[in-house]
């Protein structure tokens, strides 16, 4: 996948993302929503520029569905629901109590830091697929450098913070409902991947034992 194709997909995705968010909100006059959408687009652009083309292709079109396709699709749905409900809540409904400015600013810092961790993981691990599968056709091997020196699943750790912080940035307690479900799904996915890698990826069991004895 070429860089230009990735950039076009990024542009199209952000147009749809922003358009649906503003449609749910019913107004363009929500500063926190605008800030979030700009930040979301920015980290997406940095991610595109940091990820190798073959990984970008694998992430957008995995060569195989893997052993857990339902969780991947469910996580995407819950992320979109978090943004949509958050925009709907703070824009049209205003049902829930808003968060303080300090909480929203802290959530924004967490959002940027978590995305930075995820981008770092993708830049280091060229096998960072969206599908839970091994990639023998790409010569997959154990990756232990970068953030993997400190945590086995830095990408999942980042996701646990990215989506809940989205709800807090938008200032919506209603959006915390799908965000919490997203977190539970990611924890389940991480446990399933850990079990799968222990059985199928050479060297992973020793890598895990290294964390236990550290």
Task: Please give a structural write-up.
There is one protein chain. The chain starts with a helix and ends with a helix. The protein has one domain (3-213). The protein is mostly helical and 214 residues long. 71% of the residues lie in helices and 0% in strands. The protein is globular. The protein contains eight helices and no strands. 29% of the residues are buried. The model has no long low-confidence stretch (mean pLDDT 94). Helix 2 (31-50) runs parallel beside helix 5 (101-124), helix 4 runs parallel beside helix 6 and helix 5 (101-124) packs antiparallel against helix 6.
Average pLDDT, all residues: 94
Largest sheet, in brief, is:
none
Could you tell me the radius of gyration in angstroms?
18 Å
Beta-strand content bin: under 5%
Number of helices: 8
Given helix and strand content, the structural type is mainly alpha
Order of helices and strands: HHHHHHHH
Give the helix proportion (percent range): over 70%
């Amino acid at each position: 996948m070429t860089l230009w194709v990735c950039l076009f997909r990024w542009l199209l995705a952000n147009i749809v993302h922003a358009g649906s968010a503003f449609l749910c909100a019913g107004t363009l006059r929500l500063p926190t929503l605008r800030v979030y959408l700009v930040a979301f687009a920015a980290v997406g652009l940095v991610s595109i520029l940091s990820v190798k083309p073959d990984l970008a292709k694998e992430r957008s079109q995995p060569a195989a569905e893997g052993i857990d396709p339902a969780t991947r699709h469910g996580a995407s749905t819950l992320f979109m629901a978090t943004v949509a409900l958050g925009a709907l809540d703070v824009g049209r409904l205003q049902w829930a109590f808003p968060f303080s400015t300090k909480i929203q600013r802290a959530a924004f810092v967490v959002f940027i830091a978590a995305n930075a961790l995820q981008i770092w993981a993708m830049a280091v691990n060229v096998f960072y697929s969206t599908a839970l599968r091994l990639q023998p056709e790409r010569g997959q091997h154990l990756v232990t450098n970068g953030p993997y020196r400190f945590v086995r699943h830095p990408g999942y750790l980042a996701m646990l913070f990215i989506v809940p912080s989205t709800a807090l940035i938008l200032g919506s307690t209603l959006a915390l409902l799908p965000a919490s479900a997203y977190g539970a799904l990611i924890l389940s996915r991480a446990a399933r991947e850990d079990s799968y890698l222990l059985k199928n990826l050479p060297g992973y069991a020793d890598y895990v034992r290294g964390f236990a004895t550290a």
